[in-house]
Amino acid sequence: MVQLGLVGLGRMGFNMRERLRAAGHEVVGYDQNPEVSDVGSVRELVSALAAPRMIWVMVPAGEPTRQTIAELADLLTDGDLVIDGGNSKFTDDKRHAELLAAKGIGFLDAGVSGGVWGKENGYGLMVGGAQTDVERAMPIFDALRPEGPRAEGFAHAGSVGAGHYAKMVHNGIEYGLMQAYAEGFELLEAAKVVEDVPAVIKAWQRGTVVRSWLLELLVRALDEDPELDDLEGYVEDSGEGRWTLEEAINNAVPAPVISAALFARFASRQQDSAAMRAVAALRNQFGGHAVKKVAE
To answer: Of 219, 260, 261, 280, which residue is most buried, by most CB within 10 angstroms?
Structure first.
């Protein structure tokens, strides 16, 4: 049994606490929502743990994570360990590690995949940091990862920053996969020859080269709403796709699929596109092609 402090009990953090407790570990959780929190503050959480402490941070990336780690740096002591399991940008990890190392506190960055299904299925984990810190936290990682061979659900990706870098690329790939399924769905919907689109996509789940968990989730969505017309085609991005493209540019790696998928998300947020208005105007100017006026 390992004792763990967990800061952040949102959609993933809450389920992670439940999975760890089911595996026999003691988890003390803190969240700003008192209805799910075990303690009233981060300070109380630190006080509730026996030294040397291990604390997993599962809060939104960016300033919330930076503030949390800065607070922990003031409260923790030599020999403690902090794990950032959020979707932080990998460039933040070195700064966090240096801040904590000044007080003798270890740091690991953990890319976590599994979403709201992780409690049942386990989480894919990509970890960066020192081998000794990874070994110390391994009982926690083993409880969180899917059942089966460790290498199929867990990777010590490298030094500090490697875990979040790996998760960044993972999410960039995810963008491309989702966009491909979405475009295929739209084409099937548009084709008059295909009469049962959900049945076709459901059939792809077995024996085909495009079967995947994402495809299973699309089938689940179609079971609930066969034409997906209860939804608006508005898609946000949480940053990892942009960071992936930045790194593709920095390393001169062609990434046309991921870039197209990211730009498609940008397009989904436009009720009216200035660029496409310009295209329509140009087609009208050089070729006399018909245009559609706003009043129409």
So the answer is: 261
